[in-house]
Amino acid sequence: MIFKETLVPNPKKIGDFLFLLSEANFRYIYTMNSEKMNIADIRTDYKKGSLDEHEVEKNPFDQFNIWFKEAIRSEIPEVNAMTLATADTNGRPSARMVLLKNYDDKGFVFFTNYESAKSNDLKTNPHAALLLFWEPLERQVRIVGRVEKISPIESFEYFKTRPIDSQLGAWASQQSSEISARSLLEKAFVDMLEKFKNGEIPLPPQWGGYRVIPDEFEFWQGRSNRLHDRVVYRLQDDNSWKIVRLSP
Ligand SMILES: Cc1cc2nc3c(=O)[nH]c(=O)nc-3n(C[C@H](O)[C@H](O)[C@H](O)COP(=O)(O)O)c2cc1C
Question: Can you give the pLDDT at residue 37?
Answer without folding.
Answer: 76
